[in-house]
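Please produce the structure of this protein holding pyridoxal-5'-phosphate.
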Amino acid sequence: MRYINKKLTIENISVENIAKKYGTPTYCYSYDRLKENINNFKKNFKSFSPLICFAIKSNTNTNLIRVIKKFGLGADVVSMGELMMAVKAGINPKKIVFSGVGKTFEEINYAINKNILLINAESESEIKQIEKIAKSKNKRVQIGIRLNPNTDAKTLSQISTGKKENKFGVNNKTFIKLVNFCKRSKNIYLKCLSVHIGSQILDFKPYEKMLKEISKILEKVDHKFEFIDLGGGMGISYDTGQKKLNYNKYSKAIKKFLKNYKSKIIFEPGRSIIGNTGTLICKITYIKKNGKKDFIILDAAMNDLMRPALYGAVHKILPSIKSGKISKRPYEFVGPICESTDKFTTLNNFQELKEKDFIVMCDVGAYGMSLSSNYNLRPKPVELLIKGSKIKIIKKRQKLKDFI
Ligand SMILES: *Cc1c(COP(=O)(O)O)cnc(C)c1O
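Below is the modeled complex.
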């Protein structure tokens, strides 16, 4: 995204033109950016060619998953719906891993029927359930066990998953017990140790610590794991000047780890693949002056983009046309929903805005549309894929008659 003659453009198309043609609010994704992210991700870890499983929950659009599949990625899924979507988008089940603490009988049954690469189990009860279903089918099922490495990811507490107080994975003691259980089972192949310590991680040190914890446990168990699944969580820059994750250091730490343990590495990135490819175009419905600040009331709301309301996340906001005139009053960007958390951010010294102007919210490709809802019976936005000068509708705007 950049300004050309003061007009904000995505690849070769101005935001203004997109908004006028497709209405607002509108999610737009850049094909070029997606391709670049995937290539960069591969390049960062190319010395040990990992299996990269895109975390479907970050963006569930079939067309985008198809593009991701075209570049050779597999999928990390957390529900039957996501597994079905990944298969529908053409991802080879042998590149699909299934994570999550509460997989139901139906979900496990379906995953076994699809012969996916790994079911990453998160408890003793789940492993017993998998074994029972596998036995009834006379099959041997490939699984991983998710370790909780008790590692602080140094990210927002709401998206931290690798500390001992979090519900994810099992502790060292249980892990060892479960490895021994699996080794005795005729219906389970224990192939993988998996971890995922959280999301939006910008410091490589928690990853380094996580690798140390994995090494420690591998020394204690007498079992050769074909795969080590390190999860996702790589952070992106939501703000200009925000620090970046040092992929080089992370990659070096993994290489060092692989000297002792010859396993295939799996990653499950979501945000780092799709996050900065997406923007949400919104229109200003009203501007309301209130005391010292102005409320910029948008036609997009927390149901369209929930991250600010859910985790206090902040997305950069840009005007669709640059005027150079700065407002003296602070702007509070809000949606029309009847909740005080339906608020995006407050900014000082923003460009002067008028009613009916368009603005965009940046870096909403991950956990944007996938977290959207119909709260307040608001139809979900249209999703567009921009490739050069071409626009493709990859999901239609919902219509009220779809649910009324
Ligand atoms: C959410 C999740 C991911 C993806 O996390 P990102 O921060 O989007 O990379 C990967 N693995 C598991 C198990 C997850 O729950």
